[in-house]
Automatic annotation (TrEMBL):
<comment type="similarity">
    <text>Belongs to the Mediator complex subunit 18 family.</text>
</comment>
<dbReference type="GO" id="GO:0016592">
    <property type="term" value="C:mediator complex"/>
</dbReference>
<dbReference type="GO" id="GO:0006369">
    <property type="term" value="P:termination of RNA polymerase II transcription"/>
</dbReference>
<keyword id="KW-0805">Transcription regulation</keyword>
<keyword id="KW-0010">Activator</keyword>
<keyword id="KW-0804">Transcription</keyword>
<protein>
    <recommendedName>
        <fullName>Mediator of RNA polymerase II transcription subunit 18</fullName>
    </recommendedName>
</protein>
<keyword id="KW-0539">Nucleus</keyword>
<dbReference type="GO" id="GO:0006357">
    <property type="term" value="P:regulation of transcription by RNA polymerase II"/>
</dbReference>
<dbReference type="Pfam" id="PF09637">
    <property type="entry name" value="Med18"/>
</dbReference>
<comment type="function">
    <text>Component of the Mediator complex, a coactivator involved in the regulated transcription of nearly all RNA polymerase II-dependent genes. Mediator functions as a bridge to convey information from gene-specific regulatory proteins to the basal RNA polymerase II transcription machinery. Mediator is recruited to promoters by direct interactions with regulatory proteins and serves as a scaffold for the assembly of a functional preinitiation complex with RNA polymerase II and the general transcription factors.</text>
</comment>
<dbReference type="InterPro" id="IPR019095">
    <property type="entry name" value="Mediator_Med18"/>
</dbReference>
<dbReference type="GO" id="GO:0070847">
    <property type="term" value="C:core mediator complex"/>
</dbReference>
<comment type="subunit">
    <text>Component of the Mediator complex.</text>
</comment>
<dbReference type="GO" id="GO:0003712">
    <property type="term" value="F:transcription coregulator activity"/>
</dbReference>
Length: 229
């Protein structure tokens, strides 16, 4: 029985490795970020409704609790993991996400690229994932609530999020407060590696949102670890 299980695991790993090498799995995130003041967010939402798909149905809304974990090994950079759960849909699976270091920060990317490029893998999991990560030695660096709107334009995803800090450690409306008087705006595409032309499409779309919001690459070397996305 154990031999069969081991063979199954090895086969799964081989298949995953092969898929990654063949650029089948969308494991690269192309990302631009910016912010918009609370006083201008309705104007931005109106513009996005006109530019994005599904104009009639409007954007999707979300209300999520996100926990950010890290674990340090022999590597210089810590391994970053995120757990997100939908507060509006408690029966939905939790989402575990691995985020790699931005390529431009690691010296292997081209600084002329119009977007950040980083590894990103998402998997659905059970609510016990937090306990599992803790047992593995991961440390929760911070957590927050995000509430806002999601738009789509082709394969581009646009998030307009209000970020709240949890003052009492409970993700309830009475125990949170906004961290700023602005909304975080993120434009991203998840795709297999080697598709840098995607960045040009994102840059062209971002131009249509000016001057309401300036979407750009963020230099994470200038930010503390706790502020990195």
């Amino acid at each position: 029985m154990s031999q069969d299980w081991g063979g199954t695991v090895n086969t799964a790993i081989d298949n995953l490795t092969s898929a990654l090498r063949s650029n089948i799995i969308p494991n690269q995130e192309y990302l631009l970020q910016g912010s918009v003041l609370d006083s201008a967010v309705e104007i931005l939402l109106h513009r996005l409704r006109g530019l994005c798909d599904n104009v009639d149905s409007g954007p999707e809304t979300f209300h999520d609790h996100e926990m950010c974990f890290s674990i340090r090994g022999n590597q210089t950079q810590p391994l970053l993991l995120r757990v997100r759960r939908a507060l509006d849909f408690p029966d939905m699976p939790y989402q575990l996400r691995y985020i790699g270091q931005p390529e431009m920060e690691m010296g292997v990317g081209d600084k002329a690229r119009p977007t950040i490029v980083r590894s990103s893998i998402d998997v659905a999991c059970s609510c016990t994932v937090v306990e599992f990560l803790t047992e593995m030695g991961c440390r929760m660096d911070f957590e927050y609530i995000s509430r806002g709107y999601m738009f789509r334009k082709g394969r581009m995803k646009i998030l307009v999020s209000k970020i709240f800090k949890m003052s009492q450690g409970k993700p309830s409306d009475s125990g949170v407060e906004p961290i700023s008087q602005s909304y975080l705006v993120e434009l991203s595409i998840l795709a297999p590696g080697g598709q840098d032309v995607i960045g040009e499409d994102m840059k062209a779309f971002a131009e249509q949102l000016k001057p309401l919001v300036q979407l750009e690459k963020i230099d994470y070397k200038r930010l503390p670890l706790s502020m990195a996305p």
